[in-house]
Amino acid sequence: MAFRSGLEEKVADLMVELGVKYEYESTKVPYEIQHSYCPDFLLPNGIFLECKGYWDAEDRRKIKAVKQQHPELDIRMVFQAPFNKISKKSKTTYAKYCERLNIPWTSYANIPIDWLV
User: Fold this and answer.
1) One pLDDT digit (tens) per residue for the chain, 117 residues
2) Strand 105-107's sheet: what is its strand order?
3) With CB atoms 3.0 to 4.6 Å apart as the test, which of 33, 39, 92, 99 could cross-link to 48 if both were Cys?
4) Other CB atoms closer than 10 Å to residue 55's CB: what's the count?
């Protein structure tokens, strides 16, 4: 069996020596952590603009959760480089990720004026 750390392996060895039966990482327990979302910009027309140069996995999860839990919010993404990939191993770009979540996006150089007025 492959343990994640040397300490886990030592504890498992101790339990084997003592004849203690155990299961290793056999159970998953869901949990939620309450967070607050603070958008970069709130416009008078009710649109939230979220600006990203680098869009890491944690921020993607946050935006996804906010959109799912608050579909009434009009959140729009402004990227420095919308065609950057979300990771080295993925073909998905920031833009494609937004499209999958039905989130309008643009690059900084192409912000539609009608978003702002």
Assistant:
1) 788 899 999 999 999 999 999 999 999 988 888 899 999 999 999 999 999 999 999 999 999 999 999 999 999 999 999 999 999 999 999 999 999 999 999 999 999 999 998
2) 41-42, 47-52, 74-79, 105-107
3) 39
4) 21
